[in-house]
Design a protein that fits this description.
With 340 residues, this protein is mainly beta. The protein has one domain: Kelch-type beta propeller (Neuraminidase), CATH 2.120.10.80. Helix content is 0%, strand content 45%. It has strands at residues 2-10, 14-22, 42-46, 49-56, 68-76, 84-86, 97-100, 103-107, 110-112, 122-124, 128-132, 137-140, 152-156, 159-163, 166-167, 176-177, 180-185, 193-197, 206-210, 213-217, 220-221, 224-225, 229-233, 238-242, 256-260, 263-267, 272-276, 284-288, 297-300, 305-309, 312-313, 316-317, 321-325. The strands form 11 sheets. It has a 4-stranded antiparallel sheet, with no helix packed on it. A hairpin with a 2-residue loop joins strand 19 and strand 20.
Length: 340
């Protein structure tokens, strides 16, 4: 249930704040579980729907052609009682979805090519496509310059931005870590990837867009979890560093993030929910999730709410959607009443 804050004046010009509940706003109990318990998948909210794609539905670190999915679903956030199955795509995990002008984009991912019980043969994908809800069809896009998975994707204005990740090259081959960020101008007559140097090599990270900047949060290096936060200003093409993710280093592995009303919101595997504003110099705790998850997704659900869905929890994958209400900072007081 969404809580709305309003004010009125009583007595000697005293401004009093009230909080009221708006009925009709969905809560966790209003939505069915995901069609399958899954982690390392893509999710995005657009046009009143929550879309999910692919992911890993098997045991941790066990990948095969049956445990990685190519399914594509959406759920209506207001009044939706069941997931609607949409046209499938290639099986893939370690990818994300983004939305732009009413269309849904998927970029890259990891695809196993081994049957269940056979040695792992994992390959990153260069495949890119966009889904048009009006035609109910996928349209192929120019592939990535090199296959990529365990990355993240955001949209800033009309720019689609791909950060981090690595290239898995199959059984017996060492992975290649990416050191470039990719940008695609979605308004261009001819879509073409542009490459920017990035000052890190990380995967299992998350990213979010805030104003004209892309925040790249946490992840893994070749040496382990890294709480570093890198910020790309798309107007200048310059990188800077932000305040690192708080807590123990292990929580930097595969966190989940989104933006809500000009605030960047981050959930880590210990269940803590933080926020960061463009002028912030440190993270502020604003909530605690009921279920601790990693390799999950976080999407906005209103002015003061987010939805945490899927992910790995307690050694198995989750299929639940948890609505998390954020503690909002109190606005400055406008009380100008005479002192008594």
């Amino acid at each position: 249930m969404l809580r709305t804050r309003f004010s009125c004046v009583i007595g000697l010009g005293v401004l009093v704040h009230f909080t009221t509940a708006v009925a009709n706003e969905p809560t966790s109990a209003d939505w069915p579980p995901m069609p399958q318990a899954v982690s390392s998948f893509g999710a995005v909210v657009d046009g009143g729907y929550l879309y999910i794609y692919g992911g890993h539905a098997g045991k941790t670190h066990q990948y095969d052609t049956q445990s990685v999915l190519g399914s594509f679903y959406r759920l209506k956030l207001h009044g939706g009682k069941q997931w609607e199955e949409l046209p499938r795509g290639p099986i893939a995990q370690g990818l994300n979805l983004v939305a732009h002008n009413g269309k849904i984009y998927r970029i890259g991912g990891m695809q196993p090519r081994n049957a269940p019980g056979q040695p792992a043969d994992n390959h990153s994908l260069a495949d890119c496509a966009r889904f048009n809800p009006q035609t109910n069809q996928w349209e192929e896009l120019p592939p990535l310059p090199a296959p990529r998975s365990s990355h993240d994707v955001v949209v800033v204005g009309d720019q689609l931005v791909v950060v981090g990740g690595w290239q898995l090259r199959g059984r017996g081959e060492s992975p290649r870590w990416h050191d470039t960020t990719l940008v695609l101008d979605l308004t261009a007559t001819k879509l073409q990837w542009k490459t920017l140097k990035q000052p890190f090599q990380r995967r299992a990270l998350t990213a979010a867009a805030l104003d004209s900047k892309v925040y790249v949060l946490g992840g893994l290096t070749a040496d382990g979890p890294d709480p570093r936060v890198d910020i790309l200003d798309l107007t200048t093409g310059q990188w800077s560093e932000g305040p690192p993710i708080p807590g123990k280093e292990r929580v930097a592995f595969s966190p989940a993030a989104c933006t809500v009303e000009g605030r960047l919101v981050l959930n880590t595997s210990d269940g803590t929910v933080y926020q960061l504003t463009p002028r912030s110099t440190q993270w502020e705790k604003v909530a605690q999730s009921k279920q601790k998850r990693m390799v999950a997704r976080l999407v906005p659900a209103g002015r003061d709410r987010v939805i945490l869905l899927g992910g790995a929890s307690g050694g198995s994958n989750s299929d639940t959607l948890e609505v998390i209400t954020l503690t909002l900072p109190q606005p400055p007081s406008n009380d100008r009443s005479p002192k008594r």
